[in-house]
Write a structure and sequence with these properties.
Layout lengths: L11 E3 L14 H7 L9 E3 L1 H6 L4 E6 L11 H15 L9 H8 L6 E5 L3 H13 L3 E6 L4 H9 L3 E5 L3 H11 L4 E3 L10 H23 L7 E5 L4 H10 L7 E7 L4 H8 L24 H8 L2 E5 L1 H13 L6 H14 L2 H6 L7 E6 L15
Helix pairs in contact: 3-5, 3-8, 5-6, 8-9, 9-11, 12-13
The protein binds pyridoxal-5'-phosphate (PLP).
């Protein structure tokens, strides 16, 4: 494996006070809901000792989301739970997530409801997939840059697809403006007045961390020192922070994003929500210019650090993880690139309280098949 020196000018933010911020644990009904889905199984937590040696850490584990509930990315955890909560609320069961079976029974064949989402790939495919399982129509909006393969995957789930010649943030605005009445918008970012569904999406991600806690316990490991999450609009990082600020041992949480779409790092450094211009990246799911309104206060209070990485670093990480037998697309592998960008600097290691004995978990949120640009498909 080749280990390239990491660009020391990469964007970086650190907050020494974040570790003392606390949250309450979520209830276990979220995991029960996911267990009720067809094909549910915990995804693997894979030890990568060769990588641990190259970054001078005690252990590195990769949470491999390349096959989650029949799809090549983690997004269905949030989409499925949020869809169930949103539809349950419309069926007078506002306080719980009915199983898909019960939803199908209660909706019947004459339901006028349909689902909609804006996406740059994975989230929209997950919404379309769950709509299909429920027998509901779905309309998915994507920016022009999304690949043919991603568009085909969404259409293959039975959804109607609209391709818009505008950036992702504007696609979200469009989906928002046309989704009214019986059209339920399932969007993974929040704005004023639209908070319940994005929060349920974030809550749905918690199942991944509950699995990790269990898998580490089973491996005889009682704590983790650093958890690394890829960030687009920051909802996933929000879920990571919310979970790991409620656990007994409190790890550092690091967010990683492309240097061409640094909305989280830029906002945290500016001390206020700051939209950034974005440019093309192989980390397609992370190509977002605006942090979610819901994520922002959580990230500001409880995120230890944020770093940006270049496409070339993410590409190296995809190949290095593949060599270790882990199927990780550029968004997922950005966590290894981000970890390297931190662990190669003694001052950054020290700021996060890391030693050569530390335990790291990289959240590899997609497999190579999820990458809308097909990056890494030939590895
Ligand atoms: C594979 C993958 N990882 C990570 C993310 C980042 O999630 P968020 O936009 O909630 O920060 C996304 C978002 O689409 C994604 O598709």
């Amino acid at each position: 494996m080749t280990v390239k020196p990491v660009d020391s000018t990469a964007g970086w933010y650190v907050n020494a006070a974040a570790r003392s911020w606390r949250t309450s644990p979520l209830d276990s009904t979220i995991r029960e809901f996911h267990r009720s889905l067809p094909g549910y199984a915990p995804t693997p937590l894979v030890a990568v000792p060769e990588i641990a040696a190259t970054v001078n850490m005690g252990s590195v584990f990769v949470k491999d989301e390349s096959q989650r509930l029949g799809l090549p990315a983690f997004k269905i955890l949030g989409a499925s739970y949020a869809i169930s909560r949103a539809l349950s609320a419309r069926l007078d069961a506002a306080d719980r997530a009915l199983s898909l079976e019960e939803l199908r029974d209660r909706l019947g064949s004459s339901s006028k409801l349909s689902l909609a989402a804006a996406t740059d790939g994975n989230h929209g495919r997950a919404v379309a997939h769950v709509a299909n399982l429920l027998g509901l129509p779905a309309t998915i909006y994507v920016p022009d840059g999304v690949s043919q393969a991603a568009k085909h995957a969404i259409v293959g789930e039975g959804a109607t697809l609209f391709v818009l010649d505008v950036p992702y943030d504007d696609v979200v605005q469009h989906a928002k403006s046309v989704s009214t009445g019986d059209v339920v918008l399932i969007q993974d970012t929040a704005w004023s007045g639209y908070e319940d569904i994005p929060q349920w999406i974030v809550d749905g991600y918690d199942t991944m961390f509950a699995e990790i806690d269990e898998q580490l316990r089973e491996a005889g490991i009682d704590h983790v020192d650093l958890v690394v999450a890829p960030s687009g609009v920051g909802s996933f990082a929000q879920a990571v922070v919310a979970h790991y600020r409620s656990t007994e041992h409190v790890p550092a949480v690091l967010s990683v994003e492309p240097d061409t779409a640094s909305s989280v790092t830029s906002s945290l450094n500016a001390g206020q929500l700051t939209s950034v211009f974005t440019a093309d990246t192989i980390m397609t799911g992370l190509n977002c210019g605006t942090v979610s309104d819901l994520a922002w206060p959580i990230l500001q209070a409880g995120l230890d650090a944020s770093v940006t990485v270049a496409d070339s670093d993410a590409a190296d990480a995809v190949r290095d993880l593949a060599q270790q037998g882990v199927d990780s697309g550029p968004c997922g592998a950005s966590t290894l690139a981000g970890a390297r960008a931190v662990l190669s600097h003694p001052d950054r290691r020290a700021a996060l309280g890391l030693t050569t004995e530390s335990v790291i978990v990289l959240l590899s949120t997609e497999g190579r098949a999820a990458n809308p640009k097909g990056f890494g498909s030939t590895i």
